[in-house]
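Project outcomes to date are best conveyed with an example. Our students and postdoctoral researchers have been running inverse folding experiments weekly, and each run begins with a structure described purely in tokens. The record below, which covers 320 residues, was selected by the lab manager from last quarter's runs and is presented without edits.
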């Protein structure tokens, strides 16, 4: 499935590549697969993408348009496509042409070889963007992986393969504003990557301004869970204990007759104890807020799936 924002010029070329994959395909490892539907989610961009989608749907029966009421953004549009899908596997790829649909078979090979529920593209070349944007993207992902991921997905791309029932379940429970890959990381047990080469973007300008990219990163930070709140909680405990210990040190030093300015010891003891109590209290509040955040984002306590041996992951080369 493909979220479409500015696809008027690039969708026809991508459609030709998708049509070439119609019918039964055989991957490099001998797995048989078939492209049963191509969902085009119209995210109300400023061009004539709607007309292009309608024309493709009229010409190709396997194309299914999904019409959103307004512009929601790439991740909500992707969730809408996942919720509307029906296949055993869901592939998400951009409409700008940088993702080659011919690599889909390689995604399936990796998923079945590693028994993985989710497979991300791992580009072997730089993304076709400017140096500044590429550097900012790498920096944002490094910050997330180093400080916020907490065991969740750490490297991700918009070109991905996910088990169909998992993708539809994520689309059902994810709350508004949740970063898609964070939501996938909540329930996916096994994640793999496949090396791919990114292509040029088809000559159209990117739909992401610096403002939208910063908003994208901030959504990633906010939906990464309670990791940041737990940092606040830990700081409250550390500073609270430090304040108590330093206050005891000042009292003992003053009792041993060490010279200090009049009133300084009592002032420092009050300041340290008060600051420690405030930060410790903020840490407790952060824990309660963290519980509320997890509930608001829709993070499930569990997710029931079918027996993997009887589903797509249990199929061996030669079976469809």
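After processing, the design step wrote out the following sequence:
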């Amino acid at each position: 499935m493909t979220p479409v924002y500015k696809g008027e010029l690039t969708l026809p070329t991508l459609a030709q590549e998708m049509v070439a994959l119609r019918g039964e395909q055989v991957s490099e490892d001998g797995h048989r697969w078939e492209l049963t539907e191509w969902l085009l989610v119209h995210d109300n961009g400023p061009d004539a993408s709607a007309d292009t989608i309608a024309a493709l749907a009229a010409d190709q029966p396997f194309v299914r348009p999904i019409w959103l009421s307004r512009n929601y953004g790439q991740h909500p549009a992707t969730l809408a496509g996942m919720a509307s899908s029906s296949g055993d596997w869901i592939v998400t790829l951009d409409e700008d042409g940088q993702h080659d649909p011919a690599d889909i078979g390689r995604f399936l090979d990796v998923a079945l070889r590693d028994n993985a529920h989710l497979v991300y593209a791992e580009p072997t070349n730089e993304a076709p963007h400017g140096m500044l944007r590429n550097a900012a993207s790498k920096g944002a992902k490094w910050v997330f992986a180093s400080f916020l991921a907490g065991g969740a997905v750490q490297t991700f791309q918009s070109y991905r393969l996910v088990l169909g029932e998992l993708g539809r379940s994520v689309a059902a429970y994810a709350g508004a504003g949740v970063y898609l890959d964070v939501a996938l990381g909540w329930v996916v047990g096994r994640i793999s990557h496949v090396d791919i080469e990114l292509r040029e973007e088809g000559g159209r300008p990117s739909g992401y301004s610096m403002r939208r990219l910063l908003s994208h990163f901030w959504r990633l930070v906010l939906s990464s869970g309670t990791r940041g709140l737990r940092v606040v909680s830990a700081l409250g405990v550390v500073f609270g204990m430090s304040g108590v210990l330093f206050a005891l040190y000042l009292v003992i030093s003053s009792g041993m007759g060490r010279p200090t300015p009049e009133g300084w010891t009592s002032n420092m003891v009050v300041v340290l104890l008060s600051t420690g109590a405030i930060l410790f209290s903020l840490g407790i509040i952060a824990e309660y807020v963290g519980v509320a955040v997890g509930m608001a984002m829709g993070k499930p306590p569990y997710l029931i799936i079918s027996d993997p041996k009887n589903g797509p992951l249990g199929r061996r080369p030669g079976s469809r």
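DSSP finds ten helices and nine strands in the chain. The chain has two domains: 2-224+301-314, 227-297. The training component of this project remains on track.
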